Input
Amino acid sequence: MSIKSFAKKVTLTTLAALSLFGAALPASAATKVTVSSIGSDYDVWKFIAESEEAKKAGLEIEVKEIDGGLPLNKSVADGIVDANAFQSLGYLDAFNKESDNALVPIGTTYIEPMGIYSKKYKKIEEVKEGAVVALADNPANTTRALRLLESAGLIKLKPDFDDGVGTPDDVIENPKKLEFKLIDDTTAVRVLDDVDLSIIGNTIALEGGLNVLKDAIYKEEINDSTKSRINVIAVKKGREKDENLLKLVELYHTPKVQEFIKEKFEGTKVEVKKTLKMSGRKLNNESSHRSGYAGRVGAFPPTFWGQAASLLNRLRLA
Output
């Protein structure tokens, strides 16, 4: 055997041993994966990218901050990045309905409650007739906000209300004659001075210095009806079995990452650990929920994951 062949064999054997025993691989041997995100999720993925766990997984993670849900999804669909992490199943479902660029969720990350905020009222019961309500002007968050108003007892929606594309026109009872104002959801905190109520997702609320557990006058509860609010890591259709991309899901749920999230975001991002098995296969029902939100969250009722699987089946490969 030549010296060159011997050296090559030793190098490959060494790399295999490092991988087997969980040691970090040299940077030159790591696989580069690009993730796009925004806001607080971007902060989480920067932490993951710089972690020892990522190195041990053999990944070199580049995190790109991209502004806006549509550009974030197009960055994956167009192959600019490998995966994104910012959206709920409901948001992803709405995107897939309106776009030819189908994306697929490969794993769950967390769920966080949407809240109703106000500078004029301390309690939801104080809301007066004619109050102006700011709603995010995108299908997934508009319908989510309307559902939240309904659960707060302020409006009633049509029995056949579509959680993917519903609008304020689907309100059939509005006893307080609320006025709905559709806005860019990134401005939801800034418009608080100009409206009576603003319905804000937790990521944007955090960026604006608000904590849904402390500052909202009403918030979503985590139960069977909020299944579509679970956030996911999404990839381009056809890449859902890529082992390097699936490692992103594992990294998100490592103890060090969860400790960072709990401390930085004060318990407002509730971990949801589920294995999504696509192509008609059922969801793996081994779950883990870590929460600082309304105490410890136990397992959801059996119907929760059955209905979630139904939602995910609409995203599966044909």
